[in-house]
Amino acid sequence: MTIRKNFNFKEENAKYLEQRAKEEAKTQTQLLEELLEKDRKEKIKSKKLEALNRLKGSLSGKIGDVDLKEIRLERAIRRAK
C-alpha cells in the first residue's frame, strides 16, 4: 500500500533530488524511499548493537573473568597425567 505525501524542499535540495533521479534513471520517490529504508535499517542495527553492548557487560559479575585458554590448558594437563 502506498500513501501520498507532499513535502516542501529548499530549492537547492529539490534541484539536487531531480538531478540525482535523472542520473540514476529512477523516480524521486524511489530515491527518497531507498534513502529512508537505508536509514531505518541503520537505526535498527544501531539499536541492536547498543542492546548487545549492554548485555556484554551485565554478565561479567555473575560469571566472573574466565580465561578459556587457561581452562583448556588445565584440562590438557590433567588428561596427560
Features of the shown structure:
rod-shaped, mainly alpha
Structural account:
With 81 residues, this protein is mainly α. It has helices at 11-24, 28-58, 60-63, 68-80. The chain has four helices and no strands.
Summarize the structure.
With 81 residues, the chain is mostly helical. It is built from four helices and no strands.
Going by helix content, strand content and strand pairing, the class is mainly alpha
Number of helices: 4
The biggest sheet, with number of strands, parallel, antiparallel or mixed sense and barrel status, is: none
Give the SSE string: HHHH
In total, the number of strands is 0
How many domains is the backbone divided into? Answer: 1
Average pLDDT figure: 87
Quote the beta fraction: under 5%
Q: Which bin fits the share of residues in helices?
A: over 70%
